[in-house]
Amino acid sequence: MKILQVCSAEGIGGGEQHVIDLTRGLLQRGHELHLAVRPNSPLQMEFGDAPIHWHEVKLRNALDVFSAKRLSKLITEHKIEVVHAHLARDYPVTGLATKNLSVRFFLTRHHFNPIKSSSLYEASIRHAIKLIAVSETVRQELAKAFPALQDHIEIIPNWLRFATLLSRTEARKYFDIKRPTAIAVIGQITPLKRQDLFLEAIRLLAANQASENVEFFIIGAAHPADKNYEQKLHQTAQEMGIESQVKFTGFLPDLPKYLTAFDAIVAPSDNEGFSLIAIEAMHAGCAVLASEVGGLAEIITHNETGILFPPGQAEIIARHLRFLLSDSSTRTQITTAAQASVRERFAREHILDQIEALYRSA
Length: 362
Known about the structure:
Elements: E1 2-6, H1 14-28, E2 32-37, E3 53-56, H2 65-77, E4 82-85, H3 91-98, E5 104-109, H4 119-125, E6 130-133, H5 136-145, E7 153-155, H6 168-175, E8 181-186, H7 195-207, E9 214-219, H8 227-240, E10 246-250, E11 264-267, H9 276-283, E12 287-291, H10 294-299, E13 307-309, H11 314-326, H12 328-345, H13 348-361
Parallel strand pairs: 1-2, 1-4, 2-3, 4-5, 5-6, 6-7, 8-9, 8-11, 9-10, 11-12, 12-13
């Protein structure tokens, strides 16, 4: 099939990682892949010399009719059969571009945030064959935004990205870990991800001498709009006297294969539509402690495949970390069950099969 993915992203997050891996998976299955992206898109740097047809389209916003015309033209010129959009601002533009064409149109919603819908917005995507939600939480928000399209919504979760895991020794060497235990919070540095709660939990552990043998990591980068928050995190670590125990790494490519370095991953987000890093960490043998919100609560079964805690509670995070640090048997039970769970539920080839089947069945 000739497939066009539309993604106007200006950074790389979970949704963008999905687009990257979906594109790679479809290439491996012999399809012809086209990507419509903004000029200077970070996606272009992820593929090297992969045989992808790139199309730079301005994709300014949801009302960009000029981009809709550009998309419609390239769909016709390249005889595109399937069009798949991945960001809310791209949905109506892609919908307008495909409305009068004999092409199969899909969209995937990766985020839990409500969509500000309208009758015009809904009309622009009414011909979408499927609205794909990555979790039940996301499905519910899509149904609220587009009640007339509820029957078109299908849940297909994200999947484990392919990665050959390094040995624990190799991964710890990569991070230059010297102490017996390493714990990280991973993701874009932004108030939503609550890295500040992670710092507060570290302070509480240090106050009880429970962190002497632990190194802590904050992995991820901030978009320009969140640079002040990032600076505040550095300042907070200094004020708490824990800066020597906390390493800020910035964004790290190919991160999944290095996750074997960590004993536990904390995901204190206020909400998540899904969480790629949670399933990847579980697959790598890390104990995952996460806010009981959104997609995180759908991925993890409390006290079986991970630990769930009420959002915003640094004291409870610290308490669970103290327990896991002191009870290696329980930690092993949790990580073993977590590995089995994610390998069964989020196998890459199985979920790619579902998406490819949707493309074909239409």
